[in-house]
Amino acid sequence: MRIALTGGIACGKSTAAALFAKHGCAVISTDAITHEVLNDPAMLAPLGKQFGAGILLPGGSINRRVLSQIVFADPQARAALEALVHPEINRRWRERMERASAPLRLVEIPLLFEKKLEQEFNKSICVHCTRETQLSRMASRGLSAEEAQDRLDAQWPVEEKLRRAHFCLFNEGNLLFLEQQILILMSRVA
Protein backbone atom coordinates (compact mmCIF):
# COMPACT_ATOMS: atom_id res chain seq x y z
CA MET A 1 0.00 0.00 0.00
CA ARG A 2 1.47 3.32 -1.11
CA ILE A 3 0.27 6.24 0.97
CA ALA A 4 1.01 9.94 0.47
CA LEU A 5 1.03 12.21 3.52
CA THR A 6 0.50 15.87 2.74
CA GLY A 7 -0.79 19.04 4.38
CA GLY A 8 -0.01 22.67 4.84
CA ILE A 9 3.20 24.05 6.23
CA ALA A 10 3.45 23.68 10.02
CA CYS A 11 0.39 21.41 10.16
CA GLY A 12 2.41 18.52 11.62
CA LYS A 13 3.27 16.29 8.68
CA SER A 14 6.63 15.28 10.15
CA THR A 15 5.09 14.59 13.55
CA ALA A 16 2.43 12.42 11.94
CA ALA A 17 5.05 10.65 9.80
CA ALA A 18 7.08 9.81 12.91
CA LEU A 19 3.99 8.30 14.51
CA PHE A 20 3.27 6.22 11.39
CA ALA A 21 6.89 4.97 11.54
CA LYS A 22 6.48 4.14 15.24
CA HIS A 23 3.62 1.84 14.26
CA GLY A 24 5.43 -0.02 11.50
CA CYS A 25 5.08 2.05 8.34
CA ALA A 26 8.06 2.58 6.07
CA VAL A 27 8.27 6.39 6.02
CA ILE A 28 10.07 8.42 3.39
CA SER A 29 10.43 12.15 4.00
CA THR A 30 10.79 14.36 0.95
CA ASP A 31 11.95 17.13 3.31
CA ALA A 32 14.89 14.95 4.39
CA ILE A 33 15.59 14.09 0.76
CA THR A 34 15.49 17.79 -0.11
CA HIS A 35 18.20 18.41 2.51
CA GLU A 36 20.29 15.64 0.92
CA VAL A 37 19.84 17.03 -2.58
CA LEU A 38 20.62 20.60 -1.56
CA ASN A 39 23.82 19.41 0.11
CA ASP A 40 24.85 17.20 -2.81
CA PRO A 41 28.14 18.63 -4.12
CA ALA A 42 26.86 18.17 -7.68
CA MET A 43 23.99 20.57 -6.91
CA LEU A 44 26.07 23.41 -5.43
CA ALA A 45 27.34 24.87 -8.69
CA PRO A 46 23.95 24.95 -10.47
CA LEU A 47 22.28 26.45 -7.40
CA GLY A 48 25.05 29.04 -6.95
CA LYS A 49 24.80 29.96 -10.63
CA GLN A 50 21.02 30.30 -10.48
CA PHE A 51 20.71 32.16 -7.16
CA GLY A 52 24.12 33.75 -6.59
CA ALA A 53 27.03 33.06 -4.29
CA GLY A 54 25.07 34.56 -1.37
CA ILE A 55 23.24 31.26 -0.90
CA LEU A 56 26.51 29.39 -0.25
CA LEU A 57 27.98 29.11 3.24
CA PRO A 58 31.77 29.36 3.72
CA GLY A 59 32.06 25.57 4.05
CA GLY A 60 30.44 25.09 0.67
CA SER A 61 26.94 24.08 1.76
CA ILE A 62 23.65 25.84 1.04
CA ASN A 63 22.37 28.53 3.37
CA ARG A 64 18.79 27.24 3.42
CA ARG A 65 17.47 30.32 5.22
CA VAL A 66 18.76 32.68 2.52
CA LEU A 67 17.60 30.39 -0.28
CA SER A 68 14.15 30.11 1.34
CA GLN A 69 13.85 33.89 1.62
CA ILE A 70 14.60 34.19 -2.10
CA VAL A 71 12.29 31.48 -3.39
CA PHE A 72 9.32 32.11 -1.13
CA ALA A 73 9.31 35.81 -2.02
CA ASP A 74 9.47 35.20 -5.78
CA PRO A 75 7.35 32.59 -7.62
CA GLN A 76 9.74 32.58 -10.60
CA ALA A 77 12.71 31.87 -8.33
CA ARG A 78 10.72 29.09 -6.65
CA ALA A 79 9.90 27.57 -10.06
CA ALA A 80 13.60 27.72 -11.00
CA LEU A 81 14.59 25.96 -7.78
CA GLU A 82 11.94 23.29 -8.29
CA ALA A 83 13.13 22.71 -11.87
CA LEU A 84 16.65 22.13 -10.55
CA VAL A 85 15.94 19.91 -7.56
CA HIS A 86 12.54 18.21 -7.97
CA PRO A 87 13.63 15.65 -10.58
CA GLU A 88 16.29 14.30 -8.23
CA ILE A 89 14.05 14.49 -5.16
CA ASN A 90 11.33 12.58 -7.02
CA ARG A 91 13.81 9.97 -8.26
CA ARG A 92 15.06 9.35 -4.72
CA TRP A 93 11.69 8.99 -3.01
CA ARG A 94 10.41 6.69 -5.74
CA GLU A 95 13.51 4.53 -5.44
CA ARG A 96 13.19 4.34 -1.64
CA MET A 97 9.51 3.54 -1.82
CA GLU A 98 10.25 0.62 -4.16
CA ARG A 99 12.97 -0.71 -1.84
CA ALA A 100 10.84 -0.46 1.32
CA SER A 101 9.79 -3.82 2.71
CA ALA A 102 6.94 -2.76 5.01
CA PRO A 103 3.44 -3.40 3.70
CA LEU A 104 2.48 0.25 4.36
CA ARG A 105 4.80 2.68 2.57
CA LEU A 106 4.22 6.31 3.39
CA VAL A 107 5.80 9.26 1.58
CA GLU A 108 5.61 12.64 3.29
CA ILE A 109 5.17 14.96 0.30
CA PRO A 110 4.01 18.53 0.94
CA LEU A 111 3.33 19.42 -2.72
CA LEU A 112 1.47 16.21 -3.57
CA PHE A 113 -1.49 17.83 -5.26
CA GLU A 114 0.31 20.91 -6.54
CA LYS A 115 2.71 18.68 -8.50
CA LYS A 116 -0.01 16.20 -9.55
CA LEU A 117 1.68 13.19 -7.91
CA GLU A 118 -1.40 11.73 -6.23
CA GLN A 119 -1.89 9.10 -8.96
CA GLU A 120 1.31 7.39 -7.78
CA PHE A 121 -0.36 6.44 -4.48
CA ASN A 122 -3.19 4.17 -3.38
CA LYS A 123 -4.39 6.65 -0.75
CA SER A 124 -3.62 10.18 0.41
CA ILE A 125 -3.80 11.68 3.88
CA CYS A 126 -3.88 15.38 4.67
CA VAL A 127 -2.71 16.67 8.06
CA HIS A 128 -4.31 19.96 8.98
CA CYS A 129 -4.77 22.49 11.75
CA THR A 130 -6.07 26.02 12.01
CA ARG A 131 -4.32 28.87 10.22
CA GLU A 132 -3.65 30.48 13.60
CA THR A 133 -1.83 27.35 14.74
CA GLN A 134 0.19 27.26 11.52
CA LEU A 135 1.26 30.90 12.02
CA SER A 136 2.08 30.27 15.69
CA ARG A 137 4.20 27.22 14.85
CA MET A 138 6.08 29.10 12.13
CA ALA A 139 6.72 32.01 14.51
CA SER A 140 8.14 29.54 17.05
CA ARG A 141 10.54 28.39 14.31
CA GLY A 142 11.84 31.94 13.98
CA LEU A 143 9.96 33.02 10.86
CA SER A 144 8.70 36.57 10.63
CA ALA A 145 5.02 37.20 9.89
CA GLU A 146 5.97 38.10 6.30
CA GLU A 147 8.05 34.93 5.83
CA ALA A 148 5.23 32.82 7.24
CA GLN A 149 2.71 34.44 4.92
CA ASP A 150 5.02 33.91 1.90
CA ARG A 151 5.19 30.20 2.71
CA LEU A 152 1.42 29.93 3.13
CA ASP A 153 0.92 31.74 -0.17
CA ALA A 154 3.32 29.37 -1.94
CA GLN A 155 1.13 26.34 -1.24
CA TRP A 156 -2.45 25.53 -1.99
CA PRO A 157 -4.87 26.31 0.84
CA VAL A 158 -5.07 23.36 3.21
CA GLU A 159 -8.83 23.27 2.58
CA GLU A 160 -8.17 22.32 -1.07
CA LYS A 161 -5.79 19.57 0.01
CA LEU A 162 -8.41 18.28 2.45
CA ARG A 163 -10.99 18.19 -0.32
CA ARG A 164 -8.73 16.05 -2.51
CA ALA A 165 -7.32 13.70 0.14
CA HIS A 166 -8.84 10.32 0.96
CA PHE A 167 -8.35 10.83 4.72
CA CYS A 168 -7.56 13.67 7.07
CA LEU A 169 -5.81 14.02 10.42
CA PHE A 170 -6.64 16.97 12.66
CA ASN A 171 -3.48 18.06 14.45
CA GLU A 172 -4.81 20.66 16.82
CA GLY A 173 -4.78 18.61 20.01
CA ASN A 174 -2.01 16.82 21.82
CA LEU A 175 0.26 14.08 20.47
CA LEU A 176 -1.90 11.30 21.91
CA PHE A 177 -4.93 12.63 20.01
CA LEU A 178 -2.97 12.59 16.76
CA GLU A 179 -1.63 9.11 17.47
CA GLN A 180 -5.13 7.76 18.15
CA GLN A 181 -6.31 9.12 14.79
CA ILE A 182 -3.34 7.46 13.09
CA LEU A 183 -4.05 4.10 14.69
CA ILE A 184 -7.68 4.23 13.55
CA LEU A 185 -6.59 5.24 10.06
CA MET A 186 -3.98 2.47 9.85
CA SER A 187 -6.63 -0.10 10.75
CA ARG A 188 -8.72 1.14 7.82
CA VAL A 189 -6.01 1.20 5.14
CA ALA A 190 -4.13 -1.97 6.12
Keywords summarizing the entry:
single chain; 190 residues; alpha/beta; Rossmann fold; five-stranded parallel sheet; 5 strands; 56% helix; 13% strand
Write the layout of secondary structure elements.
Blueprint: E1 2-7, H1 13-22, E2 26-29, H2 30-38, H3 41-51, H4 64-73, H5 75-99, E3 105-108, E4 123-128, H6 131-140, H7 145-154, H8 158-164, E5 167-170, H9 175-189
Parallel strand pairs: 1-3, 1-4, 2-3, 4-5
Helix pairs in contact: 1-9, 2-5, 3-5, 4-5
What does this structure look like?
This protein is α/β, with parallel strands linked by helices and 190 residues long. It has one domain (2-189): Rossmann fold (3-Layer(aba) Sandwich), CATH 3.40.50. The protein is built from 9 helices and 5 strands. The protein has helices at residues 13-22, 30-38, 41-51, 64-73, 75-99, 131-140, 145-154, 158-164, 175-189, and strands at 2-7, 26-29, 105-108, 123-128, 167-170. It has a 5-stranded parallel sheet with strand order 2-3-1-4-5, with helices on both faces. Helix 4 (64-73) packs across helix 5 (75-99). The longest helix has 25 residues, at 75-99. It is globular, with a radius of gyration of 17 Å. 29% of the residues are buried. The model has no long low-confidence stretch (mean pLDDT 93).
